[in-house]
Design a protein that fits this description.
alpha/beta; D-Maltodextrin-Binding Protein, domain 2; Alpha-Beta Plaits; 3 domains; ten-stranded mixed β-sheet; five-stranded mixed β-sheet; 12 helices; ACT-like_dom_sf; EC 4.2.1.51; CM_dom_sf; Bifunctional chorismate mutase/prephenate dehydratase; cytoplasm
Amino acid sequence: MPHEQSAAPDDSALTPLRRRIDDIDGQLLELISERARLAQEVGRVKHARGEPVYRPEREAQVLARLAQINAGPLPAQSIRAVWLELMSACRALEAPLSVAYLGPEGTFSEAAALAQFGSQIETQPCASIDEVFRSVEAGGAGFGVVPVENSTEGSVNRTLDLLMGSSLSICAELALPIEHCLLTQTGTLDGVTEVAAHPQALAQCQAWLSAHAPQVARVAAASNGAAAQAAAKTPTLAAIAGLGAAARYGLKPVAQAIQDDPHNRTRFQVIGRVQTQPSGADHTSLILSVPNRPGAVYDMLAPLAEHGVSMTRFESRPARTGQWEYYFYIDVAGHQLEPRIAAALEALRTRTAFFKLLGSYPVKA
C-alpha cells in the first residue's frame, strides 16, 4: 500500500499569533539596539570622567525597579535573568570585564560570578581564594568573587583573613542556593573508594555520606570544581559538586541534593576597587577590635544602637597575638554615606583600637 501522508495541521489559529510575535521581536530588537547605543554613549562619558564601567549599585537599582513594576505573566526572577544578560551584553560593549573566582570551571563560585555579572564577561578561574585576591590586587582581573559564609557551616575563614590585609573593597554581595550532588564516572559507587570536595562541602554533606557511603574515605580538595575535574580522570574517585560540574566534566550523579540542610545557601562577595554609591538596599562591612577589658565589646557596639543602626552580622576571629585578643567582623544595614551610618561609623572610630571599613555595597538576595 502506498504510504498515506497525514493531514497537515490547521495553523489558522497559530499563524496570526506567530506573526504578532515576529512583529514584537522586531520591535524588541530595535529597542535593544537603541539601548546598546546608549550604553556605548554612557561608556564614553564614563571614560572621559575616569569612572569605572561596572556600577553595581546602578544595576541593582535597575533590577529592583523592573521587579517592582513588573505586571507579569513572567515572574520577577525571570525578568531579572533577562535584564541581567541584557546589561551584561551592553556592559561588554563599553569595555570587557574580567572576573576572577575560585576555580576551576564548574564551581559554585563560577555560578555566583555569572549570577552577578551575566555571561558576557571574561572569567578567570583561580586555584585558591588567595589567588583571587592577588589577581584583583595586581590588576589581572577587575573584580573577584569569593565565598564568605555558608548557612550550614558558617564563615569561610580564609576569605575573612584575606579581607583583613587587603586593600580591596567589597563591591556587591549575593546569596546562592547550594545543591550538592555526588558525582562519579558511572553514576554509581561501584569501585569508588574516596569522595573529594572542598572541606565546606564535605561538612555540609556529612550526615548523608555517613548514612549512604560510610565506607568511602573523604578527601579535601581545593574546590568542588577541582574535585570534579579529578573524578573525571579517576574511576575510584567520587566528587561532591553541582550539576554544572557534572555537565562540564562528563560525570553522572549518584545522588542529588545530598546537603544536610535543604535550605543550604552560600553568601558570595564581589571584591574590587569600586566605591559604590547608595542603591537603597545596602550593607556596610567593618572589622573592629577593642582592648581586652571588661565591657569593651558593649562599649564598642553602643554607637550602633545610639544611631538606630541594625547589625546583620557579628563574628569574631582570633587576632593571633597569643593574648586572647579578637577582631570583630560586623555587617550593618545601610550605606556609609547615609547620615545615621556615617555618624555611627565616626563614633566607632573613636571607641576602637582597630577600625577598617571594608565597603558599602548592594545586597542581592
